[in-house]
Amino acid sequence: MNDYLVYFKFYFDEHEHKRLQYSNRGYMWSYGHILVFISISTVGAALEVMNDKIGGHAEVSLHVVNAMVVVPTAIFMVSMWLLNDLFSKRSFEANLLYPAAAMLVLTTPFFEYGTFAVGLLLLLTLAIRLKMDTASSPTEYVTNL
């Protein structure tokens, strides 16, 4: 669910659509969403495996199930960074928020409650990003890439 919240924050962002209207990055942006949707659906499938594990129907270790959730979540975060932040004129901290959060997410499969930690990290990342976006003026983007 958190993946969808982060995705729709970008999808309905008016500045994103204006930037793509005058840019040649439209194809990269549109086809890059294939990776976004694949990672979101993979997280859904991994959560179903997690449900089977908790119910006692799956004979997979908890660390493997956590990794099944964590890896596509990290791919989702990096793909959102590549699609939306890499070529923006945001601050250095804002541009590194998603890669840093993805690195933190990749450390969570080693904990017993790794999936819960991933959810908390996604919510924290979204809160920080929204705070950064509201604290700054509308973002100027590079339009001639």
From TrEMBL:
Pfam families: LtrA
Record keywords, A-Z: Membrane, Transmembrane, Transmembrane helix
InterPro entries: Low_temperature_requirement_A (IPR010640)
TM ranges: 28-50, 62-83, 103-128
Domain of life: Bacteria
Name the record gives this protein: Low temperature requirement protein A
Lineage summary: Bacteria, Pseudomonadati, Pseudomonadota, Gammaproteobacteria, Alteromonadales
